[in-house]
Amino acid sequence: MDSDLFSRRRAERFAQLLDEANGGRRHHVRSRVDDELAALVSVSRRLTADRPDVEVDAEFRTGLRAMLVATAEREGIGAPAAAKTETATAGTGTRGSLLPAVTARRARARGAILVGIAAGAVALSGISAASENALPGDALYGMKRSTERAQLALASSDNSRGQLFLDFARTRLDEAATVRGDRLGFSAVLDDMDADTRQGVRLLTTVAAQRSDAAGLDAVNVFVTGQRRAVSGLLDRSDHVERDRTRRSLALLDAVRKRSDELRAAIACGLPTPAASDALGPAPTDCPGER
């Protein structure tokens, strides 16, 4: 999809097409982007006509409302008409007199996009719930991974993102346990699991080092303890290639625990934030007297 899809002109044309689709006044113009926007208009109409039969939890509603309100305030949607007019007429001449109408059209366009985002989010929440237990190879597995990326994008801090990555690593482990007779598939899931582990650990150890707060490493240690026990269960597989691949993931978890202990010691003896860093985050030096 074109990254310029929701540029100002396209947004305004999208709002016009939505008006027409819903029985509004027809605009006797054609735009070169109409064909591109037709699919979005069709989706919008289907979302309106066939509302998804899902229960949206209170936390999701609260988060969505906060996002929409913040976007509306930022874009000036719903601002008092007098304020808009005063701003628009600050200039002089014909151009100043045309600005209120232009502003109103842009506000309607942005409003239409917000409505589409809201409707789409509610619809996708049902699909996301259905994909929660999807496994590699299932039709909804891609949606499951997309939902995870959306969660990361909405996370409010590096600490939250780090916790999410570790949660995803646990999910990948559960998925790996279901893969049988497919060496490549098994290895691919463990590759994703290890990548999530590194990302989560790097974020959490970085926050701990920057704050000089060893308490933040507790989540890393809890994760390693539970994850290592579960990953060890994959060593029971009869396929030696899969067992060898499992040992690599166990080695990563051992390296994570070692890094966490090293950072905890560095924080305890008052060392500054390490300048060196790698895939697991800050790499501290030994405390004085430990060598």
Task: Write a brief structural summary.
Helices cover 69% and strands 1% of the residues. By secondary structure, the chain is an all-alpha fold.
Task: Please supply descriptive tags for the structure shown above.
291 residues; mainly alpha; two-stranded antiparallel sheet
> Into which percent range does the helicity of residues fall?
55-70%
Order of helices and strands: HHHHHHHHHHEE
Tally of DSSP β-strands: 2
> What's the main sheet like?
2 strands, antiparallel
Distance between the termini: 56 Å
Output mean pLDDT.
77
Helix segment count?
10
**Beta fraction of the residues?**
under 5%
Shape: flat
Q: Output the radius of gyration.
A: 26 Å
Structural class: mainly alpha
The stretches of 5 or more residues where confidence is low (pLDDT under 50) are 1-6, 81-85
* Neighbour order of strands in the largest sheet: 1-2
Account of the protein in words:
It is a single chain. With 291 residues, the chain is mainly alpha-helical. The chain has helices at 8-21, 34-49, 58-75, 81-88, 93-131, 141-154, 158-176, 183-211, 218-232, 240-268; strands at 277-278, 281-282. The protein has a two-stranded antiparallel sheet. Helix 1 (8-21) packs across helix 2 (34-49), helix 7 runs parallel beside helix 9 and helix 8 packs parallel to helix 10. The longest helix is centred in the middle third of the chain and has 39 residues, at 93-131. Mean pLDDT is 77; it is low at 1-6 and 81-85.
Secondary-structure map with pairings?
Blueprint: H1 8-21, H2 34-49, H3 58-75, H4 81-88, H5 93-131, H6 141-154, H7 158-176, H8 183-211, H9 218-232, H10 240-268, E1 277-278, E2 281-282
Antiparallel strand pairs: 1-2
